[in-house]
Amino acid sequence: MTPRERILATLKHQCPDRVPIELGWRDEVMDAAKKHYRVDTEQQVAQILGADNTRGANIKTRWPDYEKRINGELNGPFGTIGKTVLHDERTFEDRWGVVERVGSTGKYLQWITGPFEKTDDLDSFNWPDERNIVDDPALPTKVAAHKAAGYWVEGSSGAHPFKQAWRMRGFENFLCDYIANPSFVEAIYERILRYNIPVVTRAAAAGADQFCYWGDVAMQDRMIVPPDRWRALDGQAWRQIIRAARKVNPHVTFFFHSDGDIRPIMDDLIDIGFDIINPIQPECMNPAAVKRQWGSRVTLDGGGSVQRTLPFGTLADVKREVEFLLTTCAYDGGYIFRASNTVGYDCPIANVIAYYELARDFDLSKLPGPPGKIPNEPPCMSIKVAEQVGRQQVID
Length: 396
Description:
Blueprint: H1 3-11, H2 27-37, H3 42-49, E1 55-57, E2 60-61, H4 64-67, E3 72-76, E4 79-86, E5 91-93, E6 99-102, E7 109-113, E8 133-134, H5 139-148, E9 153-155, H6 161-169, H7 171-180, H8 182-205, E10 210-214, H9 227-248, E11 253-257, H10 266-272, E12 276-278, H11 287-294, E13 299-301, H12 309-312, H13 315-329, E14 335-336, H14 349-361
Parallel strand pairs: 1-9, 10-11, 11-12, 12-13, 13-14
Antiparallel strand pairs: 2-8, 3-4, 4-5, 5-6, 6-7
């Protein structure tokens, strides 16, 4: 099967030739993998591991006011920032007016401020909208070529409403708004959607297969926000985005990411129209139980522990987790193999390689069907992380 055929079969809950695989690694992990396999490129690593790399239907945008202020470039293992507005050698501002700083280790970013941290005046910011889009007449042809070559195509998706809003407002401020001033939240979302909807509809019209949104609305023991308020605010925003995209392209799929325990809104996500839910974080959601309850209605993506198994587990632990995920989640398609978040530099490369090679080589045709009994908890929960916190994990 081509990557595209594999994902299409999975979304239809048909068993593919093997499980679709997505990577999602820190740069340090990818560098270690290239060294392990003695290759030069990320694409070579992905090919060796059978990762179903996607291609993009990228919508070009212009931000004239921001572009006039660009004064430098910033890159690192925390992500590719590229040309940006530097406030100093470690502090930068993005197109949405959000200021972040590179941490002292150079590995992570710290949120500093946003345009609405100290003001409620939403008109004080020059919001992007349809006028920022640069149409590319050749985009449908490019997308068709990617599909003909056997690839799944992801479209530009704009901004995650909840995440973009709190980054502009400040997290604590926005949570207070969420409870005490929901009309303010609706006003922020309305302005974000002025940009999001034109972006997704352009990409949908060009033939994009999927839109992915990354942003957390839950913690490991509960939702960040009350589920009923999420339904009234975020749920309505998502309905507008998905409805607009599917009006242009009825077959386009939507991918939702949130770490933490999102079981209180799983039914809502499915009813709203999300096709893929990620990452099914195993420290707070048993992937096998999630599959049993919701797996016939949605495709699951992820489930591998980056808090326990990959950084602290033995190779036997890694093998046990891979077999658990595939036997309890992939027996009828409807499952994409991935770690539950970015694989970090604290994960031994031997564990990472074994994790993905085992999934690549697993024979799905031998799965008998749904397991008669599922474990009460995923195998990662048996790994005693507390006893190993002081252990140094170094990619070498």
